[in-house]
Amino acid sequence: MADLEAMPEDWSSALVVVAHPDDMEYGGAGAIARWTAQGKKVAYLLASRGEAGIDSMDPATAAPLRVEEQIASCAAVGVTEVEFLDHPDGIIEYGVPLRRDIAAAIRRHRPECVITGNYRETWPTGGLNMADHIAVGRATVDAVRDAGNRWIFQDQGLEPWNGVKYVAAASSPLATHAVDITDSFDASVASLRAHKLYLEALSGDMAEPEPFLRSMAEAVGTRFGGVLATSFELLAL
């Protein structure tokens, strides 16, 4: 596989848009920690509250707990602005309502960089992706254009925003770029560990933050100078 290029860092603000609590923490949070340490402003928007993510816990009980864990997780990587939508976890649908919500957030936050999760059909390891990730990632890409068109979603009462320079999808099987997270790796581990209830309900490798994230970072690093790294598919605007 080809070597990865360095992610551009000539921007000052970003909006992260993902489907569930813990999505960005499985890889991408190391980059967020690096960027906030540089003084960049980063906000998060989650399409759901992750209420269907813990098999042993009723959704009504899980939702507020997962929200609390996500806020703590974001704090570990220097992020204090965290917003939640109420699209239903597990059955989030791509469509105009989702695009509308994301476009509104882009208009409010006015980011130069928009970051989402992998929206391709598979993961880099070949396993199948899930529908929520695909729907939210695809809607995020489309909402970047929506947000810049003043004739779309006029009822929001928000000014259009055409200032997005980059759109990046974390952990894509079609990754083109990477970020050195050697100095922010520990923060990324702390960020994932903040999802304590979620991790307790898991089994296997994904339930162990440090070794799981290290193996991912080392694998990406084989294409990026041998450092600990996390990958992104960068879309041209």
TrEMBL record:
<dbReference type="InterPro" id="IPR024078">
    <property type="entry name" value="LmbE-like_dom_sf"/>
</dbReference>
<keyword id="KW-0862">Zinc</keyword>
<dbReference type="Pfam" id="PF02585">
    <property type="entry name" value="PIG-L"/>
</dbReference>
<dbReference type="GO" id="GO:0016137">
    <property type="term" value="P:glycoside metabolic process"/>
</dbReference>
<dbReference type="InterPro" id="IPR003737">
    <property type="entry name" value="GlcNAc_PI_deacetylase-related"/>
</dbReference>
<protein>
    <submittedName>
        <fullName>N-acetylglucosaminyl deacetylase, LmbE family</fullName>
    </submittedName>
</protein>
<dbReference type="GO" id="GO:0016811">
    <property type="term" value="F:hydrolase activity, acting on carbon-nitrogen (but not peptide) bonds, in linear amides"/>
</dbReference>
